[in-house]
UniProtKB/TrEMBL annotation, chains A, C:
Transmembrane segments: none annotated. It catalyses: N(6)-[(R)-lipoyl]-L-lysyl-[protein] + pyruvate + H(+) = N(6)-[(R)-S(8)-acetyldihydrolipoyl]-L-lysyl-[protein] + CO2. Its EC number is 1.1.1.-. The gene is acoA_2. Residues 44-319 form the Dehydrogenase E1 component domain. The pyruvate dehydrogenase complex catalyzes the overall conversion of pyruvate to acetyl-CoA and CO(2). It contains multiple copies of three enzymatic components: pyruvate dehydrogenase (E1), dihydrolipoamide acetyltransferase (E2) and lipoamide dehydrogenase (E3). This is Acetoin:2,6-dichlorophenolindophenol oxidoreductase subunit alpha. One of its GO terms (biological process) is pyruvate decarboxylation to acetyl-CoA. Keywords: Coiled coil, Oxidoreductase, Thiamine pyrophosphate.
From TrEMBL, chains B, D:
Keywords: Oxidoreductase, Thiamine pyrophosphate. It holds the Pfam family Transketolase_C. SMART domains: Transket_pyr (SM00861). Its cofactor is thiamine diphosphate. CDD domains: TPP_PYR_E1-PDHc-beta_like. Gene3D superfamilies: 3.40.50.920, 3.40.50.970. It comes from the Bacteria. Its EC number is 1.1.1.-. Residues 7-182 form the Transketolase-like pyrimidine-binding domain. This is Acetoin:2,6-dichlorophenolindophenol oxidoreductase subunit beta. It comes from Ruegeria meonggei. GO terms for molecular function: oxidoreductase activity. InterPro entries: THDP-binding, Transketo_C/PFOR_II, Transketolase-like_Pyr-bd, Transketolase_C. Coiled coil: none annotated.
Length: 328, 341, 328, 341
């Protein structure tokens, strides 16, 4: 199953949107943080986990999803949120902690929630697994359409929550797909040091469900495999576990010096940056002209500029609003 | 009384759940042994037969998985009722409870609600040792974003369950095993009371005056209320009129009712089957001291579970548990009556 | 690897000891609990999980263990404790809640601890997995001999703790063996309803370690497979996951009416009672005479009688002792 | 001062650990990112280089697994030091902590000891939102069987760490991110103090008088102590002499020192960055009221984190956090001085 041209265009545009968004955030995050780098300072305080390099997973999977489908994401959620269609302006405003943000500034970058497109995320490793199973169960009980996709990191596959939700989804045949973004690192701990096997997709055997490993951070291949898995879930045939090899081009979070990486590893990764690679492929395949791709990039940049502008101009929340919205 | 319809708490809980399930198709129940078995503590009995396997689901032993799933379902328009068989097991799944269920409403700025009920059994006294006998009231009440209730009798049990099921927020529903009405656990007779057949709510966050009095206020919840009532009965014979406040809900906490009672009596005893330190008893005493210090005729007292794990042997456990004797002695002391009576 | 005659004798004797012990406990447990069955009453209050029928697993595994080896067991621990060599008198006294009990009455039947033979158990499902991995790690770091065996039920294999400790043991190649006692039920929930696959031993694939399934509740087969796994662990080659088909001949706990069992299931199980089966086999193989086996049974019964007598006669703890031993 | 050797808390913790590791081969360290990276918060820096991979181990993201493993190792004669990176993550592994680590000594009647140290970071103030900013002091202190300490400065940090490492019991060692001395988190200057090179212990369970005074007692722990000291400084200018009590340890709690201070001052303010209700602030107030009610010249006050999840946005979070301004206002109020100053 190869993506149609408009899907390819969407995928490329969203990948670029995501990267340009991260570039903008990266720059603004550093404002007010020099000469002394203190997380608490600047227009965007707190931790910041960028998704540079991991865009193929997000677009390859979300190309198959509708707003009604559910996504639970992680502490590194921007690429997934953008691919799922989360409102970019409100998301940017949330990351800035503004009153106009998705949660009025209560959540911030690790807590992006958009009910309109059924997107949620969390700062606790593997926490989204249960909720994704539950959303899938909700659709199954109600006989309503929709699948749930849980994105997690390869490090998260060693958490108990992963195992429990996988078994639940499998034993109840829930319409769920689990996508493991294997960027080879959980902060400073390598997959090899943390995980007893090479491919988490082999853990599908523990639940009697299909498991697929996708090498090469390849958006087309991801599109294909995810498409099958999601279609299978929609047909009521139960969950699938997918692991995707991807690359983390930024540090774990901003401020990470990455001293734990073997020498030269990072350079190799930059050479495999999936965005230029996709551009090259789209051109090589003859499907797109340079002008078409430039136009998509411009559109992406415009959306990012608009969102960042909106976030910058928005007002801070009222301090007392901290005390509201605890209960519905 | 002619039309009396005495129910156990177990049956009252099941009845409230069944009534809501009839009216509201989004309500469903899941947990370990809650379907076929009707719940180890009987509070889901009959539901499988009436509502079928789709809506009444036994789960694997995976509390993080299925409580997390309940949150996902709640955010997706369902109203899950989940059971954590013993509250003591909260450690295997507390992230899903306190960090996910309790906070997603806030984190999302109201973008998502998490309407669900987490039922869990509490309490000891029957020698089930230290991983099956705790109350942990304070552990849940301390953390923001979830309501916490615990009934002392079947009337409140039904009304609180109905209220919880209609609440758009997560509610922790703690039922005390000693009150549950399961013969094999013994039963506090005072918990089995008349329960109207029709549906009704008991407001979450409102304490009840279980007995009126003027000399000393005994504040408690669940099983402790019965200890308080028994103590009050005996104190009455000794000329001390104790008022017993049944909190019913720890979050929200009805501080007004507690304060009003102490304003009247000038004396406070908190009875708490949860651990002594950093819990319910401290909070109640602080609540009163902050606002009503001048009313206090004597320092407040607490009869709480000491800060030790719960032992198995009967003599050991009974030594630690709150009981009417301990309350009577404390009341006499702060009322200036000689102790022992 | 077939057990030598003295090992066979030991296995048979321990199986009988365990069963006779449970028979005694069962009877005494009911004292004071009629006409009204209230768990809180009688000389042995609280929950009681009997191990009738599951003896083969305990002896087949523990036949390979020394006192220095570590066992973590479950809420259903008597057979395992007996096979591991826990002091039977002090264990009985603990179950009665007496001052002479292993823990002075603080633990009771779900909390049997005997440091002399490195035995511990727990009432929380799968809780023993981590400690077993840790004990194995301790031996690995110290270069001291000894393996750790964690016994769990098949229901426990769906807990997060199972997954986390399995991965840890595998990635660190710890000298650990996990033995899943598959009695087909977790209280009232069948394995089929709770577990996405038929055999938990297949979950070994998720950790890249050997997995073995042993059908038929057969002590000889268990002895053989466990022997290999334990030898492997002793050689420093890492953990093994074993699932054993076994039968729960009693209710989940005493007082369980077992209405959830399909009609007739229980009768079928009683016919497969492993103790008469082993007796028959030992006779049929010509290794033992009736008299020899009778003598082993008498020895087992004598040990049980002595332990129960000791427990009965021992004094209750002092009430105030409830407040001691919280800290070392 | 000539021989001053000012260290951050991070370095003081690492130094204490290294010194014990040199003397005691049973000590080893494990946790996420504690080896190669030296700990996200720097408190294990240098250990891998000195002691190697066997004794300084990065773990998978499996807190239940490795904390459970630490218990097994501790029972087997080792002395594990484990790290739970943020205290907020306790929900994924609390069973291993409170139901296993904390209780096995008791359950076994002393048959097994569980000597281990669980280090965990606490505190907010730098916009890390509601799953990375909590203190949860009360959640740990409420449950029996584990000691709970938290230093406010590097001297205590080293001495408490050494004491914890030599304690035969499980010790929860909570270090506040705002005091840790990591530049990227900001640093409270007052936490960086002289630390002797040689090994020493600070007794677990003994509070310190961080500043003497006669008019009001400010009780706190960790970061709150610094808020208290700053407030005391300002109050002194206004003629109010505040005494600041640094608890250092929540379990055991040094009730004597608190009571003695309030006996002297007659006024109490508790500063607590943990949630307001059912936690530390209530316990301290109850402790004083039970014994020293007659000494109290005014109702006690608490400056605690309100009962809401911790928000991300700076203005929201800062609104909720305790600070010197809030303490000054409360102190002036109970000392009968006009508020605002
Ligand atoms: C339960 C829990 N443990 C630890 C952490 C701290 N932590 C945050 S991100 C991270 C690494 C996650 O690795 P992975 O799942 O591979 O995702 P990645 O960061 O590579 O995207 C860790 C350990 C956490 N947030 N939650
Ligand atoms: C974490 C946790 N969840 C639930 C329980 C309640 N519980 C006690 S025994 C049991 C069934 C265990 O099944 P299995 O592991 O197969 O062991 P078996 O009882 O069959 O020996 C359950 C659910 C518990 N003790 N701990
Ligand atoms: Mg990763
Ligand atoms: Mg079983």
């Amino acid at each position: 199953m190869q993506p149609a041209k408009d899907t390819l265009a969407w995928m490329y545009e969203k990948m670029v949107t995501s990267r340009r968004f991260e570039n903008a955030i990266e720059k603004i995050y550093m404002e007010g943080k020099s000469p002394v780098f203190n997380m608490a300072d600047g227009p965007i305080p707190g931790e910041m986990h960028l998704s540079d390099g991991q865009e193929p997973v997000a677009v390859g999977v979300c190309a198959h999803l509708n707003p009604e489908d559910v996504v639970t994401a992680t502490h590194r959620p921007h690429h997934q949120a953008i691919a799922k269609g989360v409102d970019l302006k409100k998301m940017a405003a949330e990351i800035f902690g503004k009153a106009t943000g998705l949660s009025g500034g209560r959540g911030g970058h690790m807590h992006i929630f958009d009910a309109d497109v059924n997107f949620a995320c969390s700062g606790i490793i593997a926490q989204g697994m249960g909720p994704a199973a539950g959303a899938a169960l909700s659709r199954q009980i109600q006989g309503k359409p929709g699948v749930a996709v849980s994105f997690i990191g390869e490090g998260a596959a060693n958490q108990g929550a992963f195992h429990e939700a996988m078994n639940l989804a499998a034993v109840w045949k829930l319409p769920m797909v689990v996508v493991v973004e294997d960027n080879a690192w959980g902060i400073s701990v390598s997959k090899e040091a943390s995980t007893a096997i090479q491919r988490n997709s082999d853990r599908a055997a523990a639940y009697g469900i299909p498991g697929h490993y996708i090498p090469g951070n390849d958006p087309m291949k991801i599109y294909e495999v995810a498409g099958e898995a999601i279609a299978r879930a929609r047909r009521g045939e139960g969950p699938t576990l997918i692991e995707v090899e991807t690359y983390r081009l930024a540090g774990h979070f901003m401020g990470d010096a990455e001293g734990y990486r073997p020498d030269g590893e990072k350079d190799g990764l930059f050479e495999k940056d999936p965005i230029p690679a996709m551009r090259a492929k789209l051109l090589a395949d003859g499907n797109f002209t340079e002008a078409e791709l430039d136009a998509l990039e411009d559109k992406a940049q415009a959306a990012v500029d608009e969102a960042i502008g909106f976030a910058r101009e928005s007002a801070d929340p009222k301090p007392e609003d901290a005390l509201t919205a605890v209960f519905a | 009384m002619e039309n009396e319809r005495k129910l156990t708490i177990a049956r009252a809980m099941a009845e409230a759940t069944a009534q809501e399930m009839r009216d509201d198709p989004s309500v469903f129940v899941m947990g370990e042994d809650i379907a076929e078995l009707g719940g180890v503590f009987g509070n889901t009995r009959g539901l499988l037969e009436e509502f079928g396997k789709e809506r009444v689901r036994d789960t694997p032993i995976s509390e993080t998985g299925f409580i997390g799933a309940a949150v996902g379902a709640a955010q997706d328009g369902m109203k899950p009722v989940v059971e954590l068989m013993f509250v003591d097991f909260f450690g295997v799944c507390f992230d899903a409870i306190y960090n996910l269920m309790a906070k997603n409403t806030y984190f999302s700025g109201g973008n998502f609600n998490v309407p669900m009920v987490l039922m869990t059994s509490t309490g000891g006294g029957y020698s089930d040792a230290g991983q099956h006998s705790q109350c942990l009231y304070g552990s849940f009440a301390h953390l923001p974003g979830m309501k916490v209730v615990s009934p002392s009798n079947a009337y409140d049990a039904k009304g609180l369950m109905t209220a919880a099921l209609r609440d758009p927020n997560p509610v922790i529903y703690m039922y005390h095993k000693g009150l549950q009405g399961m013969g094999w656990l013994g039963t506090e007779a005072g918990a089995i009371v008349h329960v109207p057949e029709e549906s009704y709510e008991v407001e979450i966050g409102k304490a009840a005056i279980a007995r009126e009095g003027h000399d000393v206020t005994i504040v408690s919840i669940a099983q402790g209320v019965h200890h308080g009532l028994k103590a009050a009965e005996r104190l009455a014979d000794q000329g001390i009129r104790a008022e017993v406040v049944d909190l019913r809900s720890l979050v929200p906490l009805d501080r007004d009712t507690i304060r009003a009672s102490v304003a009247k009596t000038g004396r406070l005893i908190v009875v708490d089957e949860d651990y002594h330190s950093y819990g319910v008893s401290g909070e109640i005493i602080a609540t009163v001291t902050e606002s009503n210090m001048a009313d206090l005729k004597a320092p407040p007292k607490r009869i709480a579970y000491p800060d030790v794990p719960i032992p198995f042997a009967r003599v050991l456990e009974q030594h630690c548990l709150p009981n009417a004797d301990k309350i009577v002695a404390a009341a006499r002391e702060i009322c200036g009556a000689p102790v022992p009576a």
